[in-house]
Design a protein that fits this description.
The chain is α+β, with helices and mostly antiparallel strands. It has helices spanning 13-24, 80-89, and strands spanning 4-7, 28-31, 34-37, 43-48, 51-60, 66-73.
């Protein structure tokens, strides 16, 4: 299956909420004693057509440093996770 990496758009939020709830049990992640709603964070999606194959979310802290919050690949061993991290690092 061919897939592309895209920035998360406002229209993707509901799908992201369902994905993280189904995979993690909650859409809230606690990092360094802070709660983050993953669907409200910037990030990237790996998409094959309309299907989400991977998700990376991050936050920008008070020093404007980016910190990766979540990384999920729903199709293993095809480079989705690596591609998401590459776009995040760029």
């Amino acid at each position: 299956m061919k897939w592309t990496i895209e920035r998360i758009q406002p229209g993707d939020r509901e799908k992201i909420i369902q994905l993280v709830i189904n995979n993690w049990g909650s859409e809230v992640m606690v990092v360094h004693d802070e709660c983050f709603h993953l669907a409200e964070q910037p990030g990237f999606l790996a998409k094959g057509g309309q299907q989400i194959l991977g998700l990376l979310t991050y936050r920008i802290d008070q020093n404007t440093d980016a910190e990766l919050l979540s990384l999920d690949s729903f199709q293993e061993n095809v480079g989705i996770g690596s591609a998401l991290v590459k776009d995040f690092a760029d």
